[in-house]
Amino acid sequence: MTTLEPMINLQPTAALNVIAPGHFVGRPRSLAQSVQAAVRAVDEATLRPVARRDAGLAFQPKALLALLSYCYARQIYASAEIEDVVRRDVNFRQLCQNEIPDEWVLRSFRRHNREAIQFCLMTALCFVAEEKVREGIVTKVNKAGFAEEAQRRIIMAMFLDSAALDGG
Question: What is the pLDDT of residue 112?
Fold first, then answer.
């Protein structure tokens, strides 16, 4: 067995229901619950909205925070890809009454709320690492680098979005 370093390899899935009301008792049992708990811990007053107050659920700051944190934890980085995943996910579309944040909204939210995303993503990465320990896949977790790994994933998202804008 090995020590799990912060770079965790998760394969993306289309199952994206991160903002549904999920009330769980005790320790989160899934990545989505971990993200939800982290998002609930963020003071909404610290988040900068990128849509009107009367915009649908999908455009509310905590929903966008959950969406981006979850996707980055699942290694889905490009805003256009996130928009596509959300568009294809029936549960998300139903929950948000078919209002889907586009890639520009996602980029703007990331730009204005990077610190909150980093906190939630770091929490999600810690959860995944702790699950690997519980499953016996690794023997211990080096938590020292999770903030840096969260930052690296946000930078990767920014890089992919800028490359897309440049046509490459």
Answer: 97
> DSSP character for 9?
-
Which amino acid would we find at residue 6? P
pLDDT average, residue stretch 68-91? 93
CA 62, distance to chain mean position in Å, is 11
**Residues paired with 164 in a beta bridge:** none
**Tokens for 124?**
């999600």
How many CA atoms lie within 13 Å of 95's alpha carbon, on the beta-carbon side? 21
Q: Which residues lie across from 138 on neighbouring strands?
A: 2
Q: What pLDDT does residue 135 have?
A: 87
What distance in Å separates the CA atoms of residue 126 and residue 143, rounded to the nearest whole number?
A: 7
Q: In 3D, which of 88, 62, 75 has the Cα closest to residue 8?
A: 75
Please give the model's pTM, rounded to 2 decimal places: 0.81
